[in-house]
Write a structure and sequence with these properties.
- The complex is a heterodimer of chains A (287) and B (298).
- Chain A is mainly alpha-helical.
- Chain A contains 10 helices and 2 strands, in the order H-H-E-E-H-H-H-H-H-H-H-H.
- In chain B, a hairpin with a 4-residue loop joins strand 1 and strand 2.
- Classes of the chains: A mainly alpha (287), B mainly alpha (298).
Chain lengths: 287, 298
């Protein structure tokens, strides 16, 4: 015997599920559409000259090499500071720290760092690195600013990757006479490495695409030459997109979309690499 | 027998310990430098001026109220847009979607999380704002609403991933019990799974609000940069200016140490404190709920 009202609740369920499908479609389809649209509009602008020449004629012609190189420098500079610091801090939280009051404070600090608006990082970088430490608007000051912004991502993913290594690995290593650091270096760290690398790439990906933190710490409106030292200011792809879409009248539309495509390839390429590392590590894992 | 630590070990252990504490140091440094540069605004600018309704730095009007309300309006509107789509997508992915579809959709949403905000602002200016202007027949498409839609897009990946995690941690026995009692899958989602994941969903919402409030580039590019009080009914469809956009667009042109510079840092202090409150309370909510869930299951 069927319960009365069963048909009605089945209908409600069908309507509800379709509503969820619709909502998901409205969320997902524009994302795909957005990326496809940008690529279609920007792809014709991409040529060897576009990625290998400096801008000319008030940036309305030529290429965007200084911006590409600048973003590479800033990303590498950010990695230089944030990777060692973030990975070691993640090791501390996963392998060394006991659940004390101080550890809780560290966690609150990390959550707080992750939530600070990017433009506030820009203010901080201006106050500390550019003015107080007198680094000027430079690649160094911008990289340091981006590093601190990236830190919470790297710390959290490192900690999570290490925590997912089964405890038996540590017990066996310790019982064979290894010290804590030896266990970390030879056993847990290698096992957690794919997860850690994924986290690093995702953190750097965000840094590479950020504009607000570098606005007053290192980004330059226009530089015909490539930067010579870490103390030079630099052009950067995200800031360049902002400049050519809002500050320069009569900017050819194709160059604008082309620049966006280059940044998207850079950023989403990193995203893809991270995803591939994660999924291949998951397949290979013995535990 | 106790193993004596090698000197190398001692050094590396000390280094690890120090880096472990570094996050606290950085938060303090950020706070100290914001206060150092921003607090003098309170003495250089009369409070009556600072909390007035007029922002016009050229004539020394530094009223942050329109900027604060601008941020508030855009954030609320963005949250109202992002919430149904974010939670709906999370519920679909976690409870309804077949696994193969889920494996396709999750990376797509991660792509959205990876798109830099300046790119969304760019599309906002070139495509979305003209569309809004034509569609709603208003003088300019650079409005609070345009910004709110972009911010909604930016907040959605955060909301989806946190809410989905929360739904995933609801024990399957809850669902099975509800289904065994004759509830449909839909009734189970509404009456059992979502309420059980309530605090996680709340955390997702708060983190989404935090993202929207702090977002800079996209909002600066599409909201029209007009520091007016958004108090009319149609303010949502008029240009406004947020706190973040004000800092980003004006800091480049002011002299270090000037009154204008100090006030911009003062706005930075406000943003810092707001994000502190939102993020710390979001984490408190989620740790408390985890504690409760563990007690229930033990």
């Amino acid at each position: 015997m069927r319960a009365p009202g069963m048909d009605k609740s089945k209908t409600i369920q069908a309507v509800g599920f379709n509503l969820l499908r619709l909502v998901t479609a409205i969320t997902v389809i524009p994302i795909i559409g957005l990326v496809v649209y940008i690529v279609v509009k920007g792809a014709p602008a991409i040529s060897w000259e576009f990625i290998s020449a400096a801008p000319s004629n008030g940036m309305r012609e030529g290429g965007i090499l200084p911006a590409i190189v600048g973003t590479l420098y800033l990303t590498l500079g950010t990695a230089l500071f944030s990777v060692p610091l973030g990975v070691l801090a993640g090791i501390y939280l996963a392998e060394y720290a006991k659940e004390t009051f101080l550890t809780r404070i560290i966690r609150v600090a990390i959550i707080n760092l992750a939530g600070i608006p990017s433009v506030v990082y820009g203010l901080f970088g201006l106050g500390l690195f550019v003015l107080f430490l007198k680094l000027g608007t430079s690649i160094l000051a911008a990289s340091l600013t981006l590093s601190i912004m990236t830190l919470p991502t790297i710390i959290s993913t490192t900690e999570q990757a290490l925590r997912s290594v089964p405890n038996s690995f540590r017990v066996v290593s310790t019982s064979l006479g290894a010290s804590r650091w030896q266990t970390v270096r030879r056993i847990t760290l290698p096992q957690a490495l794919p997860g850690i690398i994924t986290g690093i790439i995702l953190g750097l990906e965000r840094a590479a695409g950020e504009t607000a933190p570098i606005l007053f710490t290192g980004a330059a409106f226009f530089l015909p030459q490539l930067p010579h030292s870490p103390l030079d200011a630099t052009m950067a792809l995200p800031y360049h997109i902002f400049v050519i879409s809002t500050q320069i009248p009569g900017m050819p539309i194709q160059i604008q979309y082309g620049t966006v495509v280059v940044l998207l390839v850079f950023v989403l390429g990193m995203n893809l690499i991270a995803t591939l590392i994660r999924s291949s590590a998951r397949k290979k894992r013995q535990w | 027998m106790k193993r004596s630590g090698h000197t190398g070990d001692k050094v590396i252990n000390a280094v690890i310990r120090v880096t472990g504490y570094s996050s606290i140091l950085f938060v303090l440094l950020i706070l100290i430098f914001l206060l150092r540069e921003g607090l003098p605004a309170l003495s250089s600018t009369p409070l009556k001026n600072l909390f007035s309704a007029r922002w016009y730095p050229i004539e020394d009007y530094y009223g942050i109220l329109p900027l604060f309300l601008g941020s508030l309006l855009v954030t609320i509107a963005a949250t109202l847009i992002a919430l149904p789509f974010g939670i709906g997508t999370a519920v679909f992915l976690s409870e309804v979607s077949p696994p193969w579809l889920r494996d396709i959709l999750k990376p797509v949403i991660e792509i959205l999380a990876g798109i830099p905000s300046v790119v969304l602002g760019f599309i906002g200016i070139l495509v979305f704002a003209p569309f809004i202007r034509k569609f709603l027949d208003i003088p300019t498409g650079l409005t609070a609403f345009t910004g709110a839609v972009l911010l909604g897009l930016i907040a959605i990946p955060t909301i989806v991933s946190v809410a989905e995690d929360a739904l995933d941690t609801v024990p399957n026995s809850y669902r099975q019990a509800a289904l065994a009692l004759g509830a449909t899958q839909w009734q189970t989602i509404w009456n059992v799974t979502l309420p059980a994941a309530k605090t996680g969903v709340l955390t997702a919402l708060m983190l989404g609000i935090g993202r929207s409030l702090g977002e800079t580039m996209a909002v600066m590019m599409v909201t029209g940069n007009a520091p007016v009080m958004p108090l009319q009914l149609n303010s949502l469809f008029r240009p406004i200016r947020t706190m973040t956009a004000t800092i980003a667009s004006e800091m480049g042109e002011v002299a270090a140490g000037s009154q204008h510079y100090e006030v911009l840092f003062f706005i930075g202090i406000i943003l810092f404190l707001l994000s502190l409150v939102i993020n710390v309370s979001a984490s408190l909510v989620s740790t408390r709920s985890r504690g409760r869930a563990e007690r229930l299951l033990s």
